[in-house]
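Homework help board

Subject: predicted structure for assignment chain

Our instructor gave us this sequence and asked us to write out the predicted structure in token form, then describe one feature. I got the tokens but I'm not sure how to describe them. Can anyone check?
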Amino acid sequence: MLFCNRVLVSRRTDTHQHTIFCFVWWLLNTGTQDRLWTDPSPLAGEGGARAEGVGGCGVASRQATQKTLSEVQARRKWLIKRARYMRANPTEAERRIWNILRHRRLGELRWRRQEIIDDLYIVDFICFEHRLIIEADGSQHADNEEDAARDAYLQSQGFRVLRFWNGDILANIEGLAESVLHAVGILGAQTCADPTPNPLPQGEGASESISNV
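My token output:
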């Protein structure tokens, strides 16, 4: 009986060894061992893909943020340079307006010229105390959709915009001064939804052309 058990154990061992030998031989002759030892498990691959995807989104997000910041900084730099140029090279109409506004000559009001608003626009003249803006327009501003969008934004920020044609400014600077004083005098009684006081009557248009942002 003991002999029989030994024989059975021996045969089982031989069979097991033979199975292992056949499996190793199959691996060596099919090249499967490369895939077996190098391929990650499905879970590992999925996790790697997710990690890479998450990392990619993070990098893309940071790149987008950096690009946005760089664009804002570049636009700010350009606006500052542009405003300085416009102050140094005013049109004749702008020079006339500034001559009556500077040094608090008009109603003791303090005005600034070529001022940047929210890193979006440059306005010709602005009185922050009364939230009033004066724009000297050349002929290129007639029926300009960009000016309409610009004015809508400025009004949404609580500013009022008075636009005058260059030709009217040169012909009647006293009338402009009266319109400005009239606007300042009624600002406290009006809301932002009320209409802007009528500027000077539109003339034939100015011969000169100015560039505004």
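Reply (TA_rk): Your tokens look well-formed. For the description, you could write something like this. The first helix runs from residue 2 to 30. That's the kind of observation they're looking for.
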